[in-house]
Amino acid sequence: MNKAEVYRFLDLKGISYKITEHKAVFNMGELADVDLPYPEDNSKNLFVRDKKKKKYYLLTVKGDKRVDLKEFRNANGTKPLSFASGNDLLAIMKLEPGSVTPLGLLNDDERRVEFYLDKSFFEGNARIGCHPNVNTETVWLSSSDLLKIIEEHGNPVRIADFGR
Question: CA 78: distance to chain centroid?
């Protein structure tokens, strides 16, 4: 799905959302220069894999958190992890580097990627901001709605504690 298809999909599902357009951002440092309406709900997304490229994971956390892959591995019983390549990202989720997002899982036709969503997205207003498969916009929606559409798509989904 491209950006327009993501929005049509959300509309078809009856999901409420808001859009913030901004300059292209490729990392969290660049995003700090963007005026976002809900910066506390913005997500950081890590696309990682095991050494043999058999298992892929999308880790989605609040934008201000750090993810320790060794800690994640120990807590979730995975093999050692490293960042997946841009080629893997394009082949599996049809995304360019800098555009990693949970909505990219809708492009994972083989449901190869396991999704780990930070439990803190369900606290307070339970809202999440993520790219709509392009890094020039952020779409804000309910964390529960995001979880529901990924579960319906068929990717394995886990709510995880990534700390504070």
Answer: 19
At residue 76, φ and ψ (nearest 5 deg) are -120, 5
Nearest residue to 45 via CA among 152, 164, 125, 162 = 162
Phi–psi pair at 41, nearest 5 degrees: -110, 5
Counting the structural domains of the chain, the total is 1
Q: Which domain holds residue 136?
A: 3-160
Helices (H), 77-142: 86-93
- Per-residue model confidence as pLDDT tens for the chain (164 residues): 999 999 999 999 999 999 999 999 988 888 888 889 999 999 999 999 999 999 999 999 998 899 999 999 999 999 999 999 999 999 999 999 989 999 999 999 999 999 999 999 999 889 999 999 999 999 999 999 999 999 999 999 999 999 77
42, 36 Cβ separation under 8 angstroms: yes
| Beta strand 113-118 pairing with 127-130 | unpaired
CATH label of the domain that carries residue 66:
3.90.960.10
